Amino acid sequence: MALGKDYATQECSIAGALEIVGERWTLLVVRDALYGVRRYNDFLVHLGIPRAVLASRLQALTAEGILEKRRYQESPPRDEYVVTDRGIALWPTLRSLGRWGREHLGEARLRYFRHATCGTELGPYGECATCGTVVPVPDVEMVPGPGLDPDPADPVSRALLKPRRLLEPIDTRHA
Length: 175
Ligand SMILES: [Zn+2]
Fold this sequence. Notes:
This is ArsR family transcriptional regulator. It holds the Pfam family HxlR. The protein is an alpha+beta fold. The protein has two domains: 11-89, Orthogonal Bundle (Arc Repressor Mutant, subunit A), CATH 1.10.10.10; 91-168, no CATH class. It has helices at residues 13-21, 26-35, 40-47, 51-63, 85-88, 91-105, 155-159, and strands spanning 67-73, 78-83, 111-115, 127-128, 133-134, 140-144, 164-165. A three-stranded antiparallel sheet has the order 3-6-7, with no helix packed on it. It has a two-stranded antiparallel ribbon with strand order 1-2. A hairpin with a 4-residue loop joins β1 (67-73) and β2 (78-83). It binds zinc ion.
């Protein structure tokens, strides 16, 4: 029997979510959007993804309300993609996947996450042990880890060499 293209026989909310974010590259586009990437070319250089695939993923994520397209320049017309609350709600999933990759695949630790206001590294569930709270996404600061290339070629990776809060827009024009 041929492998179907969807999970129609699965009455499961995981299957429903995977219908939207289960394609190759999709969650990495969302990850970059949470890191503050907004512009097509920045996604392109940071992900090293074929143009057609990126265009298709951005379109699908916009259609699903995970990204929102916003015009930032009129002539020539240019749009950027801003992650919505629906997309921000994927953050715990991405954080857990990263943790799983490190623990079970031995992936290098490229960055870690801390509570911006007190500096405490987040626990496994995104909590701050010092403040006794789950840290809201805008208050999460990402910090370069030892596995990160200290001299990357693309401007997005260069911008991510300094500690910065999630969602803070990355401006690569001066990077
Ligand atoms: Zn804290």
